[in-house]
Amino acid sequence: MMLLRHCERLFKHGHCIKRLLHKSPCRPYTIVVPSVIGGKSTDRERVMDIFSRLLLERIICINGQIDDQMSSIVIAQLLYLQSESWRDPINLYINSPGGVVTAGLAIYDTMQYIDTPISTWCIGQACSAASLLLTAGTEGMRRALPNSRIMIHQPSGSAGGSVTDIQIKAEEMLKMKRQVNDLYVRHTKRPLSEIENLLERDKYMSPIEAKEFGLIDEVIEKPPAEKSSNS
């Protein structure tokens, strides 16, 4: 009841709280997305959710499973920031276990399509499709924090139905596997044979290992500007 009264007071004074409902196999739970005051309006205070405020600073967050809904939102944000300025870099912060391959490839294609430099950051983890997005950033601008982890592997899926249906889906999965392998070759500059062997099973890497492999360019603890100003 105390929390409810507190929320009512916030709404009464013009503040807002947005909730995202995440479904769990055990029980649904609610994550409260903080709201902040900010924006470019000088006439009055603007209240917006934290992710919208970060978008004004050209920051996009990929958190959690990559699915079609997240893909649509991230693509829209990329296109919006491209339209605002194609010169200023976009910062893409990734903390994701991966997800649907086609949803990840849709984000990947948009990243390659726009002219804007994209700086990718791994915070926490970038696994499966998320690792592809991490390495797809602009060369020299792909970074990971020291305690994050990166995992690469081949696409996975299941098939059912008639034998013919299963064969069609299996052929499509093999085609997608070759496609993903080629993308890792493109961004890591590693031989195809090495990529194929490595992606046969889950391959976890520390940030240092990911840098040596060519997935990222730098392991970093502080933002570049802050780092240079302290030195």
Overview of the structural elements:
Helices cover 44% and strands 22% of the residues. The strands form three sheets. Strands 5, 6, 7, 8, 9, 10 and 11 form a seven-stranded mixed beta sheet that branches. By secondary structure, it is of the alpha/beta class. α3 packs parallel to α4 and α4 (101-113) packs parallel to α5 (129-135). The protein has a domain at 85-224: Alpha-Beta Complex (2-enoyl-CoA Hydratase, Chain A, domain 1). The protein is globular and about 65 Å long. The protein has helices at residues 2-12, 50-56, 68-84, 101-113, 129-135, 163-188, 192-198, 207-213, 224-230, and strands spanning 18-22, 29-33, 35-37, 47-49, 59-63, 90-96, 118-127, 142-144, 149-152, 203-205, 218-219.
Parts with pLDDT < 50 across at least 5 consecutive residues: 1-27, 227-231
* Helix content, binned percent: 40-55%
CATH architecture of the domain at 85-224: Alpha-Beta Complex
Order of secondary-structure elements: HEEEEHEHEHEHEEHHEHEH
| Arithmetic mean of pLDDT | 84
Instruction: Tell me the structural class.
Output: alpha/beta
- Biggest sheet architecture: 7 strands, mixed
Give the termini distance in whole angstroms.
50 Å
